[in-house]
Design goal:
Distance between the termini: 12 Å
Strand content: 15-25%
Largest sheet: 7 strands, parallel
Shape: globular
Order of helices and strands: EHEHEHEHEHEHEEHEHEEHEEHHH
Structural class: alpha/beta
Helix content: 40-55%
Strand order of the largest sheet: 3-2-1-4-5-6-7
Radius of gyration: 21 Å
């Protein structure tokens, strides 16, 4: 039983990490299923190269529909996917996020009889906010596909966009929280200078993740904090040059680029900052809590489901002052990190089991 996972690209991202985790579960626990990953275009950064090698070691086949050019791959993707699916004959084609949804929607229009079940996981709480026309073209191709939301907020976003386009919602909707694995051991790739508070930002360097909010806050950091604070920025994206420039001028800031298997290393940092504007679920938040890192997060839909409801480190205001106030309390030792570590750890351990996620998807695939 071939289960094809359609993603944008093998690269750093919560949706992609969820797919890789799901493939690992299916390979280990469901011998009757054969997960396959299909990417629209190919990324060439070191993280992507390493992740492809890991997929190969896992025995998961990987196909690329286009080249390294994003837009030409999107244009050629539907025809390439049609040919691939005709040869592969999967039982399920499972799309993740907007661009895979678009390519699959165009492919469905080219196929008279698809012969497979369409799955879509809704990973975000804002859908087609900047390309409404493309969103309507995409959504109108889907009828009663299997919808899986990664959070209550993501499920609400799916229903809202179908209503906005005056399209019926699927009768087959499910909620499956992303699953994560507890790190077997913490690797020591980050060398942290003792005597300082080490704070990390990890994720795509995009507006959604609030990297611009972080940079605005950092510009207001008092000079007196330089000897007590060190910020680590991990990831890649459109704001990469701004991040590089800032860190080059501020010795208390280090840019690490994209890092593979971050869940095994994030525990090196006592604190993780997540100033996201919106999230489907915020996988790195749950991974950090499981690794013993305390998360300071925007109180936004999706992300706030990854932490206890009474979490004291939710930030309501995206202004630099609100984030600086939290850092000030941390530097003064007014926040008991050990208590918060335990509270978040047990919350995540119960709610985001990777085996439970895999079992729920396997049941849905079999149905």
């Amino acid at each position: 039983m071939i289960v094809a996972q359609l993603i944008t690209s093998v690269d750093l991202g919560g949706a992609e990490n969820m797919v890789f985790t799901l493939c690992e579960y299916l390979k280990q626990e469901e011998p009757g299923m054969e997960p396959v990953v299909i990417e629209i275009y190919r990324s060439g950064n070191p993280y992507a190269v390493q992740k492809r090698a890991q997929l190969k070691e896992m025995g998961v086949q990987l196909y690329t529909l286009g080249s390294t050019h994003k837009y030409s791959s999107l244009a050629a993707g539907p025809l390439a996917l049609r040919q691939l699916l005709r040869k592969m004959k999967p039982a399920v084609v499972h799309a993740h996020t907007d661009l895979p949804d678009f390519v699959l929607a165009m492919t469905l229009r080219l196929l008279r009889r698809p012969g497979f079940r369409v799955f879509r996981t809704i990973h975000n709480t804002e859908l087609w906010s900047t390309h409404s026309f493309l969103g309507k073209i995409t959504e109108s191709a889907f009828r009663n596909d299997t919808i899986v939301a990664v959070s209550q907020s993501a499920a609400a976003a799916y229903r809202q966009i179908r209503e906005r386009y005056r399209l019926p919602v699927s009768a087959d909707q499910h909620l499956v929280y992303n699953g994560i694995k507890e790190p077997a051991q913490q690797d020591q790739r980050f060398q942290l200078e003792p005597g300082k508070l080490h704070v990390a930002f990890a994720g795509r360097l995009e507006r959604q993740k609030g990297i611009d909010i972080l940079l605005n806050m950092l510009r207001d950091v008092p000079a007196s904090w330089a000897d007590r604070l060190h910020l680590h920025i991990i990831g890649s994206g459109h704001f990469e040059q701004e991040v590089r420039t800032f860190c080059a001028w501020h010795p208390w800031c280090t840019y690490h680029g994209a890092v593979s298997n971050l869940a095994d290393a994030i525990g090196a940092f006592p604190v993780l900052l997540m100033p996201s504007r919106f999230e489907g679920m915020g996988l790195i938040s749950a991974e950090a809590s499981l690794a013993g890192t305390v998360v300071v997060a925007s109180d936004v839909p999706g992300l706030n489901e990854t932490l206890p409801t009474d979490w004291p480190l939710f930030v309501q205001d995206p202004s630099p002052a609100a984030w600086l106030a939290i850092l000030d309390r941390l530097l003064q030792g007014k926040i008991d990190l050990e208590v918060l570590q335990k509270k978040a750890y047990y919350y995540v351990l119960k709610k985001f089991s990777w085996k439970e996620m895999g079992q729920q998807y396997a049941i849905l695939y079999k149905e």
